[in-house]
Amino acid sequence: MTHTDPHADVDTGLAGWLAERSDGRTAHTALSGGMTLPTAADVLGTIDCGLLAYPYLEVYRDGAKLPAVEAFTARRVQNHKVTGFIHHRNVTGQYRAGATLRLPSVADWLAAARPALATVREVLGRHIEATAYLVAAGSPVAYAEPAVDAVVLVCSGSVTWHSGEADSEPLEVAAHTAVHVPAGTTRGAFAGDGGDCLLLVLAERSPATTEIVKALRQAGTAHLEQQDTHRRHHLMPIDQKAHWVLGELAEHFAAMDPADLLRLAADRP
Fold it and tell me: Who contacts 200 (Cβ-Cβ below 8 Å, separation ≥6)?
């Protein structure tokens, strides 16, 4: 298993390159050899140890996501049955047979993914999330981020990228390369024959419904605190107070730009 330094400096060239990307086309650039990236061995080693659990793994085979019962199992932990651990034999068997292992929120448990994530967040915003794709050599990648702009770092192996842009040729991408993939431009990707391929996809995360509700509550509270009537709420008759609050919030939320609400939800610590 390869051990990397999660505190190593990330190449600032990636940030500069991303800041210049504005033409909406697929593009790529080589990363410096000093940039900290995870490897396929890092991920496989974590799967081998048997401690990775739901929801940090999804298995895709023949265009479909495998049912959880085929990917996860129960283990005895301090004499208690605990469900949701990766079924090592099933998962690795599917992987070697051509399945794609998709690992959402990979930076939660893989420290080597965090430096690149931090660099991209500095340029594109805190709402960026890291997802890893692990694919055996020569297998198709079940890429599931076609609707959002993404920065794809090829960490191990190589990949052939097929974009949907007019007159575009397949893009052969080696390890330690960054690919900027605009939304809606991906037709498919295949891992090269030179070894296990690990892709680190850095893309905009869709906030959970609960996060949007929390952001809505935060925005509504901030609006009410700015109203003179609210500061004199103790003088309002009790039968009027609820109607006033509901009326103020309804008017405020009706005029709110949904993009501002999503931005507020994504930027919550």
Answer: 37, 38, 106, 113, 116, 130, 131, 132, 152, 153, 155
Amino acid occupying residue 266: A
Q: How far apart are CA 93 and CA 56, in angstroms?
A: 18
Please report the sign of the dihedral spanned by the C-alpha atoms of residue 118, residue 132, residue 171, residue 180.
negative
- Identify whether the C-beta of residue 200 lies closer than 8 Å to the C-beta of residue 39: no
Mean pLDDT across the chain: 84
The C-alpha atoms of residue 132 and residue 28 are separated, in whole angstroms, by 18
80-99 pLDDT, tens digit per residue, is 898 899 998 999 999 999 99
Q: Are 178 and 28 in contact (CB under 8 A)?
A: yes
**Are the CB atoms for 245 and 220 separated by under 8 Å?**
no
Residue 215 in tokens: 């952001």
- Rg of the chain on CA atoms, in Å: 23
Long-range contacts of 251-255 (CB under 8 A, 24+ apart): 252/219, 252/220, 252/223, 253/216, 253/219, 253/220
pLDDT for the residue 225 = 82
- What gap in Å lies between CA 1 and CA 5, rounded to an integer? 13
Our CA dihedral for 46, 266, 153, 25, rounded to 10 degrees, sits at 150
Q: Which residues of 248-261 are buried (b: 16+ CB within 10 A; e: fewer)?
A: bbeebeeeeeeeeb
Tokens of 99: 């399945």
Rounded distance, CA 77 to CA 91, Å? 21
pLDDT tens profile 27-85: 888 887 677 899 999 999 999 887 889 999 999 998 899 999 999 999 888 888 988 99
